[in-house]
Structures are given as C-alpha cells and as structure tokens.
Amino acid sequence: MAYWIKVNYERNDYVVDLDRISAFACASSGRITFWLPDSSIPIVINRQSNPEGYQTVLEYVQQVSAHSLTSSWIKLLYDRSEYLVDLNRISAFSYAANGRITFWLPESSIPIVINKQSDPDTYQKLAEYIKRKTGHAF
C-alpha cells in the first residue's frame, strides 16, 4: 500500500512513497532526513522550511515506530540522531571481534555501528533479528 506525499526540498518538489523509504533519521533539532529510494539523495526537512511535509513525515514515522514491536522496524540512537530503520531492507551485516555489529543504510553509504557495551538492547535486538532472518549467529 503506497503512502505518497509531496515535499519541497532545495527548490524542487518531490512526490515520494514513504512506504518505500528504508530509514529515517530524526535529529534533536527537529530535522528529519530520509533517502530517496533507488538513489543516495538525502531529503532533509524541518518544521520551518516545510511545515506541511514535515508534519506528514513525522506522523508517518510515529505510526511506523508505534508498530515497530511487531514488524522489522527498529528504533536506535546513533550519532546524535534517532534512526528508524527497516531491517528487512538491510542486505549485509558485519560482526567484529570487539563486539560491534555494523550495517549500512540502504540508499546511502552511512554505516551504523552498534556496540554491545554501549547499547546492549539494540545489539540484542539486532543479533536476534540476524539469527531469525538469516539462520546465522554472530
């Protein structure tokens, strides 16, 4: 089911299906970033520059995160932002001997590194997801 919205970013109008977005980053400053499907173009919106688009995306993010316990979406704090990531769209995970799990956000080259000591809850959720989805354990 598509969830189409229209947003203005850098003097261009974009019509985007939010259901195709694989990750959102919400900064404490109120900025929301997502990456266009099939590209590495980030769209950054905030309440001041695009109030209607911002509100629509924020409501979508809140809706997805409210249902995250029953789906593949995971919420995590990373690099001073709150990320909401659809793990079903992650195609590679890396495990380091020092207890870090790394994955890369689809549509961007941003690595997300989760450390067992600094974020044990997210680490455990990732480890369980990887085992359940791939059959492989780290």
What does this structure look like?
By secondary structure, this protein is of the alpha+beta class. The protein has 2 helices and 10 strands. It has helices at residues 51-66, 120-134, and strands at 4-9, 12-17, 23-27, 32-35, 42-45, 73-78, 81-86, 93-96, 100-104, 111-115. A 5-stranded antiparallel sheet has the order 5-4-3-7-6, covered by helices on one side. A 3-stranded antiparallel sheet has the order 8-9-10, covered by helices on one side. A hairpin with a 3-residue loop joins strand 8 and strand 9. The radius of gyration is 15 Å and the shape is elongated.
Briefly say what this structure is.
It contains two helices and ten strands. It has 138 residues and is α+β, with helices and mostly antiparallel strands.
Q: Give the overall silhouette.
A: elongated
Overall number of strands: 10
**Multimeric organization:** single chain
Query: How much of the polypeptide forms β-strand, as a percent range?
Result: 35-45%
**Whole-number average pLDDT?**
90
Give the termini separation: 34 Å
By secondary-structure content and strand pairing, the structural class works out as alpha+beta
Spans where pLDDT lies below 50 across 5 or more residues: none
What is the N-to-C succession of helices and strands? EEEEEHEEEEEH
The major pleated sheet works out as: 5 strands, antiparallel
Helix content range of the residues, please?
10-25%
Major sheet: order of its strands? Answer: 5-4-3-7-6
What is the gyration radius calculated from CA atoms? Answer: 15 Å
The total of helices stands at 2
Main attributes?
single chain; alpha+beta; 5-stranded antiparallel sheet; 2 helices; elongated
